[in-house]
Amino acid sequence: MSPNPFLGVLLHAIGGLAAASFYIPYKRVKGWAWENYWIVGGVFSWLVAPIVFALIIVPSTFEVLFDAPRSAILWTWVFGVLWGVGGLTFGLSMRYLGIALGYAIALGLCAAFGTLIPPLVSGELVETARETSGQIMLAGVGLCLAGIALSGKAGMSKERELSAAEKRATVSEFSFIKGLAVAIVSGILSACMAYAMQAGEPIGKVALDHGAPTLFQNLPVLIVAFFGGLLTNAVWCFILMVRNRTLGDFAASQIDGERVPKLGNYLLCAVAGVTWYLQFFFYSMGTTQMGEYDFSSWTLHMASIIIFSTLWGLALREWRGTSRRTHVWITLGLFLLILSTVVIGYGNQLAN
Q1: What pLDDT, on a 0 to 100 scale, did the predictor assign at position 172?
Q2: How far apart are the first and last CA of the chain?
């Protein structure tokens, strides 16, 4: 099947919507500490959903993983472990900054590192810049980064305009310093998923040899990468549960005198976890459609996430009380991000 970059853009947009939406169910979990609901949702995100989806669509998944080069398995897992640290701190950035500001800072760095470093190291970036199609695609990447910067500027403007009470009305644990620190770490290490997908290309080729549809050749890659992320998050959440004495809360009917809806909590975490997985389910399909400049997939993924997370932030009234100037920054950021996806898709279409 020939690459179809505009189909790839659409698939990345759907993945971005899933990524921007996954944290919403966590906000309705009652009684549990962050480490409890994060790891329960993570089991669905990084273990259950990847295996179930892969086995349904690519029944020979385990044969693919057995036949794949050991080096590809190892490096995909290693980058998955590093990405897991980024994902862990990403959850904390949502906790301290809220959806709109947390996504803008973390994903801005993530977009830059995940998009430009792999082709720069391989030398592909220089070759890309010599072609007209590559120049257009890179201009789209630049527009995306500019849109992310404007989104971040809007977040900084919000920080200056709202009182501490107003910030905590929408983000109960708002802390700009803590949130900024974890968002920076998250942005850098979360880019390792782009490296994991690149390291897992030989696994995808083996999947094609086993009859996997082109669109779904990367599903076995996700299993390996996410297993690394699960390990990282499980270790940290266990440490927090021991430190905060929340290990027994999974079975508790009451915590601090309040009833805990256990079944409801588990269902909400399952919904959040599967929704989170869907971002990379669609991302893995989108990468197969981008053609020669498939590394631009990461930019499209980040742009889509920030577009939808900003819209969610507006819908949840996280920007209530901010000035017209701040809303202008938000609007300009969204415009550039949407424009960037069109320009990147056009550049990839010319290349193909």
Answers
A1: 58
A2: 12
Give one DSSP letter per residue of 88-126, joined into a string: HHHHHHHHHH-HHHHHHHHHHHHHHHHHHHHHHHHTHHH
Distances (CA, A) of 71 to 39, 74, 202, 226: 28, 5, 9, 17
For the segment 207-224, what is each residue's pLDDT rounded down to a tens digit? Answer: 999 999 988 999 999 999
Residue closest to 32 by CA, chosen among 277, 253, 275: 253
Look-up: residue for tokens 């020979």? 60
Tell me the chain's radius of gyration from C-alpha atoms: 20
Give the whole-angstrom CA distance, residue 19 versus residue 81: 19
> Any bridge partners for residue 259, and if so which?
254
Q: Considering only CA atoms, which of 283, 306, 270, 239 is closest in space to residue 45? A: 270
- Give 10-32 as a DSSP string: HHHHHHHHHHHHTTTGGGG--S-
Considering the chain, what is the average pLDDT of its residues?
84
State how far the Cα of 64 lies from the Cα of 203, in Å rounded to an integer. 7
If the chain, 352 residues long, is cut into consecutive pieces of 10 residues, what is the mean pLDDT of each piece?
A: 80 90 90 92 95 95 95 95 84 68 68 69 73 84 83 73 61 69 78 86 94 92 94 93 91 81 94 94 87 76 82 78 82 86 80 70
Backbone angles phi, psi at 29, to 5 degrees: -70, 135
Q: Which two tokens stand for residue 140?
A: 């789209």
Two tokens, residue 153: 């500027």
Residues contacting residue 78 through CB under 8 Å, at least 6 positions apart = 228
10 Å CB burial of residue 87 (0-12, 13-18, 19+) is buried
- The single-letter DSSP state of residue 250 is G
Q: For residue 162, what pLDDT is reported?
A: 63
Contact predicate 207/220, CB 8 Å: yes
d(CA 222, CA 48): 12
Single-letter amino acid code for the residue at 278: L
Residue 346 and residue 343: Cα distance in Å, rounded?
5
How confident is the model at residue 253, as a pLDDT?
Answer: 83
